[in-house]
Amino acid sequence: MAKPKKTNEEKAKKVRYSYLATTPQGTKVKGRIDSYNLDETKTFLENEGLQVEKITKENEFLYMEIGKKTKDAASLSFMLTQLSAYLKAGIPLIDAVRILQRQAAKKDDQLIFMNLIYELTKGEPFSQALAKQKDVFPKLLINMVKTSELTGDLVEILDDMANYYTSIDKTHKDVINALTYPAIIFIFSIIVFTFILIYIIPEFVGLFKQNNAEIPALTRFVISTSNFLSKNILLIILIILLVTITYHYCYKNIKTFRKTMQTIYMRLPIIGKMIIYKEVYMFTKTFASLLNHEVFITDSMSILENISTNEVFKEIIKDSLESLSKGSKISDSFRNKWAFPTAAYEMLQTGENTGKLGTMMDYVAKYYGTLHSNYVKRLNTFIEPIMIVFLATIVGVVVLSIVIPMFSFYSQIGY
């Protein structure tokens, strides 16, 4: 059988153009757009009411990475809230996106909205227009919008997704806020300690040698550390950078490494529970949103597998899809899974048995969202004194390493 021929549009590759134009009000505007050719770009801009003065093709290497970064949860929530408000006011979808494009302060956002308008004017469904923006919009949002196109409840979907991304953003910020202070203290401590060892300790070493002061073991250890850092500081920095870059690359690109590290993190005594609570919250919150908008369970699990960033949960979800294909219950795949708490499993099973899985997943999400928030607060309270003790210990070791030989030095003078 012969393969179907690709259309001209499928063969073509979009190119980025910069343009200078004048609005009907006489205002000069600059912008960018991704389209297939210059003539199509000019026609589109003129149909948008702009008088085109100049169109320039941009260098592909200058923009090849732009647009691949997924919008953060806070930006998505704000955008969806605005879009929903415009639709509720009776403004057509494409006009609502035009308003967002005019209001956007960032050039990248202006480009994204202009590209959405471009696709919508060609008759593309909103979900397809979102999907064509590379990885800018999450797969979950695209699938939910696609569902709304079948059910006709786009506004409701936008409101729900806005609330969803608001809660995700809050969860993310709770973790960042909890870890910021300890991280700052730790980094500051290391910098101060390194500075003292490299620049301060050598001055005292010369003083001790000149006066034949007795040097105890603690001071010898600090002096040895100081000498090592002074001779190898550039090598140490290079090794730290190399390890960091290697770790980041392996975590991002090697599935086995990523799963191993996530498993280790989730099994750690202190932060393990915090990670598990967050993952359960994300999973159940997303699952509930999909089910409550009448997405089939198998489709919901497929979407969850695609959007999940945790390989441990990906594996559980994959097992559940296999179980569903064999006619088993979804809860069977979550039984006795160390990463999925027993309480969450029991509620999942109850929701499945009662036919109220979406409602039950909402309850689970709220429960573990609250648990995660409280745990983050307790963790923050717990870490602060530890970091203070850590800083005090570093300072104490350095001070003692200097003071003890000084006593020996002064005793010799007094004698």
Give an overview in words:
The chain is mostly helical. The protein has three domains: about 10-65, Ubiquitin-like (UB roll), CATH 3.10.20; about 65-135, no CATH class; about 140-415, no CATH class. It is about 75% helix and about 5% strand. It contains 16 helices and three strands. It has a three-stranded antiparallel sheet. The longest helix has about 60 residues, at about 355-415. The N and C termini lie far apart (about 105 Å).
H-E order: HEEHEHHHHHHHHHHHHHH
Approximately how much helix is present in the residues?
over 70%
Mean pLDDT comes to: 85
Overall radius of gyration: 29 Å
Largest sheet: 3 strands, antiparallel
The total beta strand count reads: 3
Q: What structural class do the secondary elements suggest?
A: mainly alpha
Q: Alpha-carbon distance between the termini?
A: 105 Å
